[in-house]
Amino acid sequence: MKSLRVFHIRPGKSVEELAMPPDEPPREGYLWLACSHDDFVAETESVQTFCLRLGGIRILDLHVSDLSNLQLPSHLDYTSDYDVLVFRRLALHDGLQNEAASTREQGAPRRLKEVAVALGVETVPVGFVLFDRLLLSVHPEPCVVHEAYIRRLLSLARGEPRQPGSLARLPASPAELMLRVTSLMVDGFLDLRKHLTRQLEHWQQRLMRPRKNFDRWDALLRSRQVLHYLDECCEDQSNALASWMDTLDDWPVPGTKESRHEREQLLVRGRDVLEHIERVAHHVRRLEQSAETAVQIHFSIQSNRTNDVMRALTAVTAVFLPLNLIAGIFGMNFDSVPWLHGAHSFWITMGIMLLIAFGLLGYFVRKNYLSSTEDD
């Protein structure tokens, strides 16, 4: 298996990367087997052999099918010997992201950035099989999350502080290691929030332009679909992780103070990851509400604009109605129409018509029938 990486983790002591899985479980610490999805599918029997040798049992065929399925949502399943957690993370498109970054620097059109954000919300599953002293993770290739955490794990083993004045410790158990990796996946969703917010703010500004027609409804619909998909993904993640935390109650009661402390750390870290997922879901729902509100305001603006136009046209029509009436009366085919043959009848009639027109215009202006409700 080309992409299989094996780590022997001794909490509080060291992390050693092995060339191949050992023949038996380690006497101290635990093992982490990280393999790609393609290798897991191609070398399923070899992985089953490793699990039997190091975890004491083979993975059920249904769970193997779940780990091989790239369309499976985040979920949890468990047996009396191991737990299976499938957790979806962001699918990173490095080439497209680099291209979008270059367009931002060059001031290129926004459409490429819109596509980049939309593609950035596509997700892929990462599977975890949790034994007592073994963690098997199945990830797509390449997996930047696994590589990032492996670098962090090795830096922790060397004693390098992550922040000034603080020195993080190595994960004490396979369960804590799994929670740390899932936490790193959720951080990717947290980072995505600012890109989604920027994109929705762009659409809101476009929708709020009263004198320009909005013609990008297809892109706005895609953005809302992305938010809806992200909300569902967060809900699946939250349910899967909450279900796994519920299974902690079925674990044997810790007999020592150190074991109880380790259990409490798992609960605290699990609640922290759940809180991060909830923050993402809350932000997504708020963006959905903002987008819906912006669309409603856009139609309200357009409705007010239409009302202003109709009011102005109605006022102009009202001005010309008496003028048309006068013109119609004097246009009748009668010989004895008053003023029809007078020397100054035309000018007197035109004067009366102008007085009526200016009088009505003055009245409509005073009543604000010709003013716009928009602030120019």
Automatic annotation (TrEMBL):
<dbReference type="GO" id="GO:0015095">
    <property type="term" value="F:magnesium ion transmembrane transporter activity"/>
</dbReference>
<keyword id="KW-0460">Magnesium</keyword>
<protein>
    <submittedName>
        <fullName>Magnesium transporter CorA</fullName>
    </submittedName>
</protein>
<comment type="function">
    <text>Mediates influx of magnesium ions. Alternates between open and closed states. Activated by low cytoplasmic Mg(2+) levels. Inactive when cytoplasmic Mg(2+) levels are high.</text>
</comment>
<keyword id="KW-0813">Transport</keyword>
<dbReference type="GO" id="GO:0000287">
    <property type="term" value="F:magnesium ion binding"/>
</dbReference>
<keyword id="KW-0406">Ion transport</keyword>
<keyword id="KW-0812">Transmembrane</keyword>
<dbReference type="InterPro" id="IPR002523">
    <property type="entry name" value="MgTranspt_CorA/ZnTranspt_ZntB"/>
</dbReference>
<dbReference type="GO" id="GO:0050897">
    <property type="term" value="F:cobalt ion binding"/>
</dbReference>
<keyword id="KW-1003">Cell membrane</keyword>
<dbReference type="GO" id="GO:0015087">
    <property type="term" value="F:cobalt ion transmembrane transporter activity"/>
</dbReference>
<keyword id="KW-1133">Transmembrane helix</keyword>
<feature type="transmembrane region" description="Helical">
    <location>
        <begin position="312"/>
        <end position="334"/>
    </location>
</feature>
<keyword id="KW-0472">Membrane</keyword>
<dbReference type="InterPro" id="IPR045861">
    <property type="entry name" value="CorA_cytoplasmic_dom"/>
</dbReference>
<feature type="transmembrane region" description="Helical">
    <location>
        <begin position="346"/>
        <end position="365"/>
    </location>
</feature>
<dbReference type="InterPro" id="IPR045863">
    <property type="entry name" value="CorA_TM1_TM2"/>
</dbReference>
<dbReference type="Pfam" id="PF01544">
    <property type="entry name" value="CorA"/>
</dbReference>
<comment type="similarity">
    <text>Belongs to the CorA metal ion transporter (MIT) (TC 1.A.35) family.</text>
</comment>
<dbReference type="GO" id="GO:0005886">
    <property type="term" value="C:plasma membrane"/>
</dbReference>
